[in-house]
Amino acid sequence: MTSRVRNIALMITLVFGLIAVVVFCMVLGHRTMNPQKSLVHNRVTSSPKHRILIIAPHPDDESLGTGGLIADAAIRGDKVKILFMTNGDGFHFGAEKYTGRAKVNKDDYLRYGFQRQKEAICAATKLGIRTNDVTFLGFPDQGLASIWRHYWDPSKPFISRQTKFSHVPYPTAVDYGQAYSAPVLLGVLERIMMEYQPTDIYVTGTSDRHPDHWATGVFTLLAMSMLESKDPCFCPHLYTFDIHRANWQVDLPVGTDSDLSLPDSFFDYGDELYKRKVSRKALEAKKQALSCYKTQAIVMPSFLKSFERPYELFRLHTPRSIVSTNQVPKNSWPASSLLALHPVDHPKRESGSVIKSAYVLQHGPDLYLKLVTGGNCSPGTSYSINVCTVPSGPNEAIERVSLRLIPKTRSYELVDVWPPLNTKEVKVAYTKDAVQIRLAGILLPNAKYFLFNIDLNNYGKIVDRIPWERFNVTPNRNWRKPLNCRVEARQQVAVSPPSI
Question: What is the pTM of this model?
Answer without folding.
Answer: 0.85
